[in-house]
Amino acid sequence: MSEEHYLELCEKPVQFENASSVNNVFFDEANKQVFAVRSGGATGVVVKGPDDKSSVAFRMDDKGEVKCIKFSIGNKILAVQRTPKSVDFINFIPDYPHMEFTQECKTKNASVLGFCWTNWNEIVFITDQGIEFYQVFPDKRSLKLLKSQSINVNWYQYCPETAVILLSTTVQGNVLQPFAFRNGTMSKMSKFEIELPVVPKPAKLSLSERDIAMATIYGQLYVMYLKHHSRTANSPSAEVVLYHLPREGTCKKTHVLKLNTTGKFALNVADNLVVVHHQSSQTSLIFDIKLKEPDGAVNTHQPVLPARSIHPYRIPLTGPAVVASQPPVPSQLYSSSWSVFQPDIIISANEGYLWYLQVRLPPAVNLLQDKGKLMDFLLRRRDCKMVILSVCSQILDDGEKGSLPVVATVFDKLNQVYKDYLEAEQSYTVAMESGPSRGSAAQKRPVRTQAVIDQSDMYTHVLSSFTERKVVSHKFIIAVLMEYIRSLNQFQITVQHYLYELVIKTLVQHNLFYMLHQFLQYHVLSDSKPLACLLLSLESTYPPAHQLSLDMLKRLSTANDEIVEVLLSKQQVLAALRFIRSVGSHDNVSARKFLDAARQTGDQMLFYTVFRSFQQRNQRMRGSPAFNPGEHCEEHVTHFKQLFGEQSLMKPSTV
């Protein structure tokens, strides 16, 4: 069962003083920092972040109970709320005055519900009567109101990734008004209504802050609504409703995630998957909104995998009393003291830990039987490459039980992603070469994700070892290799020669020369110089390979030099001479190379013919049959004289 935990808590959590030893613990979603606040005399604050740079400890005057505390981006300015009317500020910028300064909210009789930093020096106060957007001047220890908006507010949520604040308005709280912040500007987005469950009159439901979360999924901002069942509804189970919130345009309900159970839930987003934690069963579900083709305005989704618990996490014991042999203590998963934050954060205040939730892909391989669906799921995950390659190996190792159509589907899915990346890379290269065009945004270089499985990956990790397996029939091996080549061709991806070489070696290994001949004759294997050289090396095993190689080189009009080398190495000097004449290269080739080859044959008449041929060339080109000193043919002239006498040398033409 342990192999089936497809969710885990990160190995190195952020550790902080637990709730039993401090007065209050706060979490800042923007900086991913935990504030442990201890008051009494002076207020001691220990801030722990994802790394040492974002961790800091300090003391400040005790001016009352801390209701909210957050650093601006980069730990430059600290904001602390102690009263319903104002927020205090302390500079943490070196060489700036460290004294506190205060800003009261502008709206009369309003209470500050909280605040959000949208930049290192820009902050938003959210009150029960609206929002106030300020710029902070740390050197002057003052704030300037940039913009405000009056609206009755029940509660709010903030998404730091997109700098969008969501306000709950109206009596039932289900009309949500978003505001977006960017570079000192505040813009009002389209408000929308959350559909609450129907309940018998006179009862009325209101929207709870606990049932709403905002997160970015596949680059788009969504508002996630945890819709609990109503006793009167036909469907008694809870569901998560996703509302797509674009920067411009209306917010629309786009996805419904079926939970098929009831109870207490919490939401996270990890690796673009919506994770739903269920407290009573101590399990979690994951949903992938892209795994199903859109079939309407609202798409209904079932969990991708069966419900499983998060992988057990053990807390190592620390302190002077700890004995080396003492085992780590298991963390209490799905505890009622857990707090869940977006996108992927779980905090246990009792234990003093902040974890990042992570997706483990290997367990999904065995839980998702449909290999096509599994591949769609894996291709969208962050660290997918080695898992995908192992799945490919596993499918091939399972043998021939009707798996070729499955293999074809998997190859096509991989090569679609591969092709998309190659096209994006090509269009980027073209754009860079043509230079920036007026009015168009600068094109970004496409990011090569782990989902791009290229030919070298497949060759190295899957196909080369697969062809060496003794338990699989050679027919299946060749069918798989040809299926991969077919898929590459279908997506118009140039097949690398080493894949063809793998096919040829496999055919030769099993003495399937007739099939090799057919593949070459019908151009199933594309012509290339490395392939032609491989064929040449097979001549001793399969003599026709020599001619097949020459034919291939001839078709490659750029391979003339290789053909000459091949023929000369086989002592087919006259054939080489005829070939260079046929392609019009006779005037440019090295005479010495041909004379060397002719002399090595030991055939005197062949040497005579080749020597005379080049003398005639010299006469025609230069008016004299003699060789130039630069041609280094002196020893061959001497050899010719020794064999045939000086009188046999061609005389210069007097014409």
TrEMBL record:
Gene Ontology biological process terms in this record: regulation of autophagy
All residue ranges annotated as the Regulator of MON1-CCZ1 complex N-terminal domain in the record: 25-143
One Pfam short name: RMC1_N
GO CC annotations on file: late endosome membrane; lysosomal membrane; Mon1-Ccz1 complex
Top-rank taxon, per record: Eukaryota
InterPro entries: RMC1, RMC1_C, RMC1_N
UniProt domain Mic1: residue ranges: 381-628
PANTHER family: COLON CANCER-ASSOCIATED PROTEIN MIC1, REGULATOR OF MON1-CCZ1 COMPLEX
Protein name, as recorded: Mic1 domain-containing protein
Organism: Solea senegalensis
